[in-house]
Design goal:
The chain has about 325 residues and is an all-alpha fold. It is built from 14 helices and no strands. The chain has one domain. The longest helix has about 35 residues. The two termini are about 20 Å apart.
Length: about 325
């Protein structure tokens, strides 16, 4: 893990988190549209944009991938995009943003714990300070909101838990596939995932829009189209592409900590939306979350330096 790769991976993870944080506002901006329609619309748009961008490289990529890779793309597209977002949007609707952000905020801990078992990863005890900071920050950032709004319905909490499991599985599997496919760029893999997601979204669109009894004005549909288009471009095409760069450049345990920035930016967007500054407790939470990332990066740097020192002495 070189210093340049680490900086590139961290920067990519931060910007990806900035884009992904916008996702938490979408169910509120289009509260009159069901989560299934939001998911279908977003991923149809994602697939359309991805197909256009991947078209010049299609023949080369098609020849470079076998059946196993296409099957993996189909699985990753489903669990990391469609299933995850349907569960997330339903959790926001039934349980509220605070509860959903809290549960989804466990993603960095879950992925980092899985990554700590990878070969050449730092020992778990070296990662514990980072995990403790992230956990403390997560509790602080959610304490007031959860105290005010509660945990919502059991169904909402279950949807949030399902989204957590779905995306943890995606993050781990996607990172491992990127490590195997060094002949496919991170951006190409993201666009291929988007293309397959678009195909799956066609199937999703049938139950989402067929027989819809809700009546929407033309302005509502224009707002919906603008929202799903923006999510497709910024959250999916750009956000997922940057995430793949981070996944390829960083060890899995450190990649997991990058997901913290989704929670950080989602919170910052929420404060802007509400027109207020973070409370002291929320400010402490953001500080702890960032400190967790710094500690995790330092643990990886120190772990990487040990073999170098041993080799120098030999």
């Amino acid at each position: 893990m070189t210093a340049n790769n680490t900086l590139l991976g961290i920067a990519s993870g931060i910007v990806a988190g900035a884009f992904w944080g916008l996702v938490f506002l979408a169910p509120k901006l289009a509260a009159d549209f069901p989560p299934l329609q939001l998911a279908a619309g977003r991923y149809l748009a994602y697939g359309l944009v991805a197909v256009v961008l991947i078209a010049p490289s299609w023949r080369r990529l098609n020849g470079a991938l076998g059946w196993r890779e296409w099957r993996a793309l189909a699985w990753l597209s489903f669990i990391g995009n469609i299933l995850y977002y349907v569960l997330l949007a339903q959790a926001v609707r039934l349980g509220g943003v605070a509860m959903t952000a809290f549960v989804i905020g466990l993603l960095p801990l879950a992925v980092t714990l899985v990554g700590s078992r990878e070969r050449h990863a730092p020992a778990l005890r070296a990662l514990l300070p980072s995990l403790a900071c992230s956990a403390a920050g997560l509790v602080c950032i959610s304490w007031q909101s959860l105290g005010a709004s509660g945990w919502g319905t059991l169904t909402g909490l279950s949807c949030a838990g399902g989204a957590l499991v779905s995306w943890t599985t995606y993050a781990v599997s996607n990172s491992r596939w990127l490590a195997r496919l060094d002949h496919v760029s991170a951006q190409d893999w993201s666009l291929l995932t988007g293309s397959i997601t678009g195909l799956e979204a066609i199937v999703l669109a049938v139950p989402a829009f067929y027989g819809d009894t809700l009546v929407h004005a033309g302005a509502d549909w224009a707002r919906f189209a603008g929202l799903i288009g923006a999510m497709a471009l910024f959250c999916s095409v750009l956000g997922n592409g940057l995430w793949n760069i981070a996944s390829r450049a960083l060890p899995l345990a450190l990649t997991g900590q990058m997901i913290v920035f989704e929670t950080i930016f989602a919170s910052l967007y929420g404060y802007l939306w509400e027109g207020r500054r973070p409370t002291p407790l929320e400010g402490l939470a953001l500080t702890l979350l960032i400190a967790g990332v710094v500690m995790c990066a330092r643990a990886h740097r120190e772990d990487a330096a040990v073999p170098t020192e041993v080799e120098a002495r030999a």
